[in-house]
Structures are given as structure tokens and as C-alpha cells.
TrEMBL record:
Shikimate binds at residues 15-17, 62, 87, 102, 218, 246. It catalyses: shikimate + NADP(+) = 3-dehydroshikimate + NADPH + H(+). Coiled coil: none annotated. Homodimer. Keywords: Amino-acid biosynthesis, Aromatic amino acid biosynthesis, NADP, Oxidoreductase. Gene3D superfamilies: Leucine Dehydrogenase, chain A, domain 1, NAD(P)-binding Rossmann-like Domain. The keyword Hydrolase does not apply. The active site is at residue 66. Involved in the biosynthesis of the chorismate, which leads to the biosynthesis of aromatic amino acids. Catalyzes the reversible NADPH linked reduction of 3-dehydroshikimate (DHSA) to yield shikimate (SA). This is Shikimate dehydrogenase (NADP(+)). Residues 7-89 form the Shikimate dehydrogenase substrate binding N-terminal domain. Residues 239-263 form the SDH C-terminal domain.
Amino acid sequence: MTIKAFVIGHPIAHSRSPLIHGTWLAEHGIDGSYEAIDVSPEALPGFFERLRSGEFAGGNVTIPHKEAVFELCDTVDPLAEQIGAVNTLVARNGKVHGTNTDYLGFLGNLDAGSPGWSDSLDRALVLGAGGAARAVIVALQSRGIPILLLNRTRATADKLAAEFEGDITVATLDALADAAPHAGLVVNTTSVGMHGTRFEGFDATALRPDTLVTDIVYSPLVTPLLADARAQGLRTVDGLGMLLHQAVPGFEAWFGVRPNVTPDLRARIEATL
Ligand code: ATR
């Protein structure tokens, strides 16, 4: 029997997930499908009934449903609760389990792009305190890494930090120059960098020569932040791998095979940017 999976969103046309999962299905010769389905917010409860009926093994959830699905899932992973979003659903025995694989995508991307990056890392500078910062914080804390959260608006960062236990300190972006010598990792979690926009006042020359710089923005692939870091001779990991690696656990749960993020897959997705 064909195993079926999906990505639901509204609209859904721009999702790259069908290409990622379709590539893996073909590579592994699996009798399966992965389709993009446009589901409006009103239609979401009805879609969950289809899920419980066993029509699908599961699927991905994207905008605007990542928060709304919490109420509809039978069980939700505690880490997804902490991240505040569900991006992956697994249907089994008439029940739907919600999880979030973005933090695994973040870790998988850095593990592949800069092996050993988290060994004896002193501190991570996390830029931004929005939704995407949550997955990055969960990821970093899973490796026991102390965090300095830098945000344009201090109050937003204070509020976010208060939701997490563990070592998180907060400052505004203008603290970057003082903080930079104490951090082996810089992560941009904001949308700054999309379409080539720049952080005002971000000075890459303040960073330590051994600092690794990564961005969750992947369009353009080399954001101004990464370009500035490279110009200083620093190591960088771009954000595209996070998109690819976050897809791995879902595929494994639905189709029973752990897929690889290959250069060929990356090239295929890169061609769509
Ligand atoms: P998401 O949920 O997708 O992460 P968001 O909640 O809008 O998006 O969060 C965007 C983050 O990017 C916030 O931390 C925001 O800073 P503020 O809290 O000060 O708004 C940050 N951000 C957005 N545009 C920015 C800019 N031009 N310069 C600095 N930070 C910016």
C-alpha cells in the first residue's frame, strides 16, 4: 500500500518540502507520496479527521497552522511546546502526534557543516528573539551551550529568556562589540539578511577569529552577515541545510528510512532559490 504524507499550509504553492521528500522517495525506491495540500484555517479540523482515519502516515505543517494544530493534536512533544510551534505530524493508530524538528534541523546543519562545533563552545550569541529564536535556543540548550540573546527590543528578549531555564543572558544589539570576544558562535534568527538586508551596527571585525557564524536565512544563500564574516576569514554555515535537515526526522517517521542530506539534494533545492 502506498504510504502517503503531506505538507499543509495556506497558501502552500511555495513550499519546497515536496521536492525534498520527493527526491528521497525516488532515491530509496519507496512506494510513497508526499503532496502539498492547501488547507484553510476553517478546514483544519476536518483535515485532522482524515488524518485520524489512517489516510496518511503524517506530514508537515506550515504557515498559518503551526500554532493552531496544538489544539488538534492528541499528543504534543514537550520541545514543540517550548518552541511554540508544531511543524511535523505523525499519525498512528487513530491518533496524531505533533512535534517540531526545526531544532534538529539547526543541529544537523551545523554538525554536517562544521563537525565538532559544539565541543567546548564557550557561548553562543543569538541575534533576535522571535519565533525562530525559540528553536535555536532549544537546540543550543540541548548541547548545554550558554546563550547571550541580543535583540533590537530588549523587552521582547527578556520575555523570551524568562520562558527558558538554563544560562541565557539578554542585551540589546549594541552590546555586540563587547560580547563578541566571548562567543565562539553567532546565529542570526531574524529575517534581517533576506533580500540582502543588513544588521545596522553589526561589525563583523569585532568577532573572534575562531568564531563560527550561521544564519537561518537561506535566500540569499550568502547573507550580508555571512559575507562580512567570510571577509574576516571566519567559518560560516549557511541556512539552507537547516531546511533540509529538519525534514529528515519526518521522512524517517513516515516512511521508515533515514534519508541523507546529499550534495545532489542541496543542489536541487538551491536551484529553486
Ligand atoms: P519570527 O517569528 O518569524 O522569528 P518575528 O517574531 O517577527 O519573526 O521576529 C523577528 C525578530 O527579528 C525579532 O527579534 C525582531 O526584533 P524586535 O523584537 O526588536 O522587533 C528582529 N528584527 C526584525 N527586523 C529587524 C531589524 N531590521 N533589525 C534588527 N532586528 C530585527
